[in-house]
Design a protein that fits this description.
Elements (H helix, E strand, L loop, with lengths): L1 E3 H6 L1 H7 L5 E5 L2 E6 L6 H8 L9 H11 L1
Parallel strand pairs: 1-2
Antiparallel strand pairs: 2-3
């Protein structure tokens, strides 16, 4: 989820709760400047769940470029 810095200031408690379940990207002047995330989320478990999803014909650089397009 992506929100503006003004929206974060207005509804901080809402986004702190939401950050426990998903990453919240904060934008300012149209650019991402920060990310709220759950510090207790098991990153290794999440990464392992992605194995087999990506086509084996894609290079790591192609995967990174695709991911950056979504942000």
């Amino acid at each position: 989820m992506s929100i503006t810095a003004t929206e974060l200031k207005t509804n901080l408690s809402k986004y702190l709760l939401l950050a426990s379940t998903e990453d919240v990207y904060i934008t300012q002047y149209g650019k991402i400047v920060a990310k709220l995330t759950n510090p207790f989320q098991n990153r290794v478990e999440i990464a392992e769940s992605l194995f087999g999803i990506l086509p084996q014909t894609m290079t790591m650089e192609e995967v990174q470029n695709e991911r950056l397009k979504e942000i």
